[in-house]
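ok so I'm stuck.
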Amino acid sequence: MDKKGRTNRLLSRLAVGLMLAAMALFTGCPNKITVKPVTFEVTFSAGEHGTLKAKADGIAETETSPITIEQGKTVTFTATADSGYRVKGWTCDGEAVNGTNAFYSFTVTKGVEVKVSFESNSVPPTPPSGDVGSFEDTGDGFIKITPPAAGITGMDPDPASLPGTEDYWKGVFRAGRKVKLSPYKLGKTEVPYKLWKEVYEWAIGTGYQFANAGVKGKDGSGSEEEPVTSISWRDCIVWCNAYTQKIKGEGECIYRKKDDHTVVLKNANDTTACDAAYADMSKKGFRLLTEAEWEYAARWQGRDSTNAEKYGEVWLTKLNSASGAKAAWHNVDETKAVAWYGANSDNKTHPVGEKRSNALGLHDMSGNVWEWCFDWYGNIEAGDGTDPQGAASGTERVMRGGGWFNSAELCVVGGRNCYNPVSSIFNLGFRLALRP
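replied:
not stuck anymore, here's the structure
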């Protein structure tokens, strides 16, 4: 080979070597290429007579401002007033937010400045404007709920914020719809097996019939304080009648025969009569929630705008969050604080009332077990309505709230689900409602 040929061959080998080195650099060592996360500076301060602390994902709670937080992370502020003082108000970039609550939480999308102020307990609080509804713990295991007289004005959420694009993530308070709800009382917890069994045994001896006896929690191996499961929708309405008769007398029973409202339903095996049940809402007996009542109770926050959206005058928890949570379902700390679900349930149900309550003082509205509602499952129609009871007919009844067996996104307050009224499963129970 001549000198020119040897030179060309050498150059060729050098080129191949450089190419292989480049390939190794860009494809063989990807861990060396890092993308710096986008961060924002959040400044915060407290006025006289109190302190303010901030905590975010990956950042320990601190009073030192500012803190630097990654985009998309949640920051939670805790205001602590001195003795004899209370929170007066919050601002975020100079705009009033969060009312007089002690906690404030949001997802970071930009740099902001948060301030909280305090005032003496001797100063009468400023009267609120607008009717956002109210609630009262009646001391009997129930919360009396009074929705706003003007109703709940529907709106549609940002689809990108929901767990999915399907219609069933959007709840019942839709744009073009206004729902008015009468006052109602709601059990603080799901019905525990202990209460179910007590009424069930009384009912069997009084002529009632059930399709299922119910079990303690997941599979009967739990405690009597765990929610009853493995009961059908038909079992639930008959049991509600039995409980009413036991406590208030048969005349106050809600569920009656469609064609003869004097006949109280007492047989869960009478599928035709049960599925066509008439609900006499003028009575004061125990009953299932309507779906609209369930969602309102799961989402109500009054004037607290934390992780909420405004529906007319009232603020309701965002559709993508568990009931009582201060952030979306993918914020593990917040979801675990209010719900038993797949990631923290240890594959079982738990005694009712152990998790943090929502704004109304209700426990387990998300997680532990799904809850039967009275309504037939159907599409949500536009238009105004008072005390709606869902579709006129159907094949499946509504259930809401998610359960111990499910992922976090299935426990959000906007998620709608349904099941055949004859079915009974290990993660489905119910909660009691009644007229005040």
